[in-house]
């Protein structure tokens, strides 16, 4: 039977040591030692994934390994930071070798793609719980911060938000079967993959440095996450809901379900960012360079008065106001 230390060495430490390139001292000591490039700052983020809250108990462990790192890489992408390394701490009910092999494969396949090294961590017995801390580097004046949006900025979104939430709804049976009859097996596979294998937009975040003003990743739903930019930048926003890009799979669902998924669904890990209208060509060029799709969906506005709350005005393509009751995901008030 695997011990704690043989588990770590067999499935994590050996591969981590074999791929150490950026850490001055990687896994295997009391602390790792990392240093960003000269003149750059460290960008640090932590995410926790809990069984039953962030993923189904029967999730493919390969997909879980991918997603555990992807959500952290997405935070670096939102800051325009270059990945350096990460730590992994997790509780595991029992050391099953097949599960560990698949989980570590999913984790390291993504880590290798982005040159992001495992540099330390911890493991213990307990209910399945994953906690990753990731480190990146970014020049001091280049970070894409939430407080840097400006009135008049365009609001952009990458990818097709809503697919992950639609995948979750499909797997949980949230909607009557009659609403799902137009979906093919290919559609269902697309939505499930969007949920289980999110693609961190690291290349896009790097390409937007010097182009975008503010950015964040959409992890808890556009309606909730965009408000973080509004609050930090002290602005309001107008969103054209008909401009929201939707995948063919999502577009086969009823319009009210589409809007709920695209505007209030979580787990997309797409980038929402703002940039001056004069930089539209630069935004398109950055997206092309990164191989990502981006869509302009709205405008940042000045507050109507100094005491006004930063709110989002929802409009259709004709400019008609829409009354939508939307709220981003809340870990303490979720279904």
UniProtKB/TrEMBL annotation:
Binding of Mg(2+) 2, residues: 47, 75
UniProt xrefs under SUPFAM superfamilies: PurM C-terminal domain-like, PurM N-terminal domain-like
Gene Ontology annotations of biological process type: thiamine biosynthetic process; thiamine diphosphate biosynthetic process
UniProt catalytic activity: thiamine phosphate + ATP = thiamine diphosphate + ADP
Species per Swiss-Prot/TrEMBL record: Paraburkholderia lycopersici
EC number: 2.7.4.16
ATP-binding found in the keyword field: yes
GO MF annotation terms: ATP binding; magnesium ion binding; thiamine-phosphate kinase activity
Amino acids binding substrate: 54, 267, 329
Residues where ATP binds: 121-122, 146, 219
Role according to the record: Catalyzes the ATP-dependent phosphorylation of thiamine-monophosphate (TMP) to form thiamine-pyrophosphate (TPP), the active form of vitamin B1.
Pathway the protein takes part in: Cofactor biosynthesis; thiamine diphosphate biosynthesis; thiamine diphosphate from thiamine phosphate: step 1/1
Further comment: Reaction mechanism of ThiL seems to utilize a direct, inline transfer of the gamma-phosphate of ATP to TMP rather than a phosphorylated enzyme intermediate.
Annotated residues for binding of Mg(2+) 1: 46-47, 122
Annotated positions binding Mg(2+) 4: 30, 45, 75
Residues that bind Mg(2+) 5: 220
UniProt protein name: Thiamine-monophosphate kinase
